[in-house]
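Technical annex, item 7. During the second reporting period the consortium partners agreed on a shared format for inverse folding records so that results from different sites could be compared directly. Each record opens with the tokenized structure and is followed by the designed sequence. A conforming record, contributed by the partner at site C, is shown below for reference.
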């Protein structure tokens, strides 16, 4: 049982800090590799079988059938033709093969005769100096896993979410790899969910930044608000994150609760830990979505209040200017007999009264908060 106690340490690296890459980028296709196969290896008693030349899927499976163990094949964005031979060799179901090649699938778990087909959405946080209305905050990829009694096949789509480092860590723990393909499936699930946690921490920083800008005081101590486009863009990225997390809850529950022939019972209990972490991330994402709704509504309300303030000021000055406009309009009429036309002090008296009325209106409006 010492292997099981060390399971989490074996499959989980030190959690990356927020705002750092949550997945390792590598090229979409190794120029030296003539096919989509990134790595193909046979593992027996927890150790990688060393061969004189790189193994192909057919040769690897022949070794497994002869001497035991299991084969782990990693592919990156294979075409239908490249995957057809592997599908025939391992007896993969045509529907699962079609999903693996075409990608753009929801996270799910499907059981076929002698294999499990699992789809994970990988999430990568995109670093940015400042969030804008066009900022890309998260990038998504996919990892499809075929789990059999003596084989494990991963099909990866997207430029991030490399499993190379995970494979190396697992190779350093022979006791864990000796548990077979189900141990690899758990390691990948745990690796993906740990990436979700890191991305959620980074997104929390972005939301805090937007929230601070919306409610920080601007001129005269009133909230200054922010660009609604930035909030909406962040909300769209959160929705993309939610589409990766929420559908995966049910598959993780099935893997942790329902006995399956292809899942080692000692490994299965550790899927509960993955499901628990995934549930916490899902709660965070739902909270992010609700918080952004509130921030967006508050920002729109502030914009409406600012417009009302501007309209009140315009209306106030219009009321003040209306007094001299009216006086000038009256005395601009060409009537012969008008009061104070020939009075020596008529002009200064009229001007004084006009100024006094304007000052009185200004004082009243300012006292009432209109100016």
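Designed sequence (site C submission):
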């Amino acid at each position: 049982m010492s292997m099981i106690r060390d399971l989490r340490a074996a499959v989980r690296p030190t959690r990356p800090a927020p705002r750092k890459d949550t997945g390792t980028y590598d090229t979409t296709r190794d120029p030296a590799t003539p096919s989509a196969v990134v790595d193909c290896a046979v593992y027996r008693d927890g150790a990688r079988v060393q061969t004189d030349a790189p193994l192909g899927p057919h040769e690897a499976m022949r070794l497994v059938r002869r001497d035991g163990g299991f084969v782990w094949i990693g592919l990156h964005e294979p075409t239908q033709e490249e995957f057809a031979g592997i599908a025939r060799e391992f007896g993969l179901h045509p529907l699962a093969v079609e999903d693996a090649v075409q990608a753009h699938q929801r996270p799910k778990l499907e059981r076929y005769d002698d294999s499990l087909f699992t789809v994970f959405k990988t999430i990568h946080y995109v670093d940015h100096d400042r969030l804008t209305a066009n900022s890309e905050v998260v990038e998504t990829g996919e990892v499809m896993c075929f789990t059999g009694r003596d084989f494990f096949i991963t099909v990866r789509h997207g430029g991030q979410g490399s499993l190379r480092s995970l494979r190396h860590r697992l190779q350093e723990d022979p006791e864990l790899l000796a548990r077979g393909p189900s141990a690899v499936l758990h390691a990948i699930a745990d690796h993906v969910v740990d990436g979700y946690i890191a991305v959620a921490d980074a997104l929390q920083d972005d939301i805090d930044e937007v929230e601070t800008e919306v409610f920080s005081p601007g001129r005269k101590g009133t909230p200054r608000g922010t660009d609604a486009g930035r909030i909406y863009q962040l909300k769209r990225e959160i929705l993309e994150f939610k589409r990766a997390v929420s559908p995966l809850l049910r598959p993780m529950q099935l893997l942790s609760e329902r006995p399956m022939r292809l899942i080692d019972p000692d490994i299965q209990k550790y899927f509960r830990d993955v499901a628990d972490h995934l549930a916490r991330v899902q709660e965070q994402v739902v909270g992010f979505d609700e918080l952004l709704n509130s921030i967006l509504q508050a920002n729109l309300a502030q914009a409406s209040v600012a417009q009302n303030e501007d309209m009140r000021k315009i209306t106030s000055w219009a009321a003040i200017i209306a007094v001299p406009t009216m006086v000038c309009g009256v005395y601009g009429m060409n009537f012969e007999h008008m009061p104070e036309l020939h009075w020596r002090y008529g002009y200064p008296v009229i001007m004084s009264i006009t100024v006094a009325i304007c000052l009185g209106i200004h004082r009243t409006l300012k006292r009432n908060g209109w100016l």
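The chain is about 55% helix and 15% strand. The chain has a mean pLDDT of 81. All partners now use this format for quarterly exchanges.
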